[in-house]
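Lab notebook, design round three. We kept the backbone fixed and only want residue identities now. Task for the bench partner: fill in a sequence for the structure below.
Input structure tokens:
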């Protein structure tokens, strides 16, 4: 759990992403800046073998569109870190691409 949390924080933290370390359990809650929709990240992540639960799918009001839940229960550490590395790369690319579009106007 701590290794997964540390990886997300080190790779995405500088971009304004936070990750809650619940101190146990099987899930990490990741929060992106408000303008990022995790539903837009999901298709590319899935194409690369990584999936997660979009935050708004866990909310009966549809809130938390900029959040997601990652399950870390079923994977050996090496496989988990490989998947999180893919997730972080895709997330960072998406955020940087979005930032370039926003500043181009």
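Proposed sequence:
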């Amino acid at each position: 759990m701590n290794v997964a949390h540390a990886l997300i924080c080190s790779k995405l933290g500088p971009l304004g992403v936070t990750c809650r370390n619940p101190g146990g359990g099987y899930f990490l809650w990741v929060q992106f800046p408000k303008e990022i929709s995790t539903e837009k990240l999901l298709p590319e992540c899935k194409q690369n073998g990584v999936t997660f639960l979009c935050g708004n799918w866990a909310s009966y009001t549809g809130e938390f569109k900029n959040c997601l839940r990652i399950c870390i229960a079923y994977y050996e550490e090496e496989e988990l870190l490989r998947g999180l590395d893919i997730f972080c790369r895709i997330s960072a690319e998406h955020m940087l691409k979005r930032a370039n579009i926003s500043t181009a106007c």
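Keep this in mind before ordering anything: The chain has a mean pLDDT of 91.
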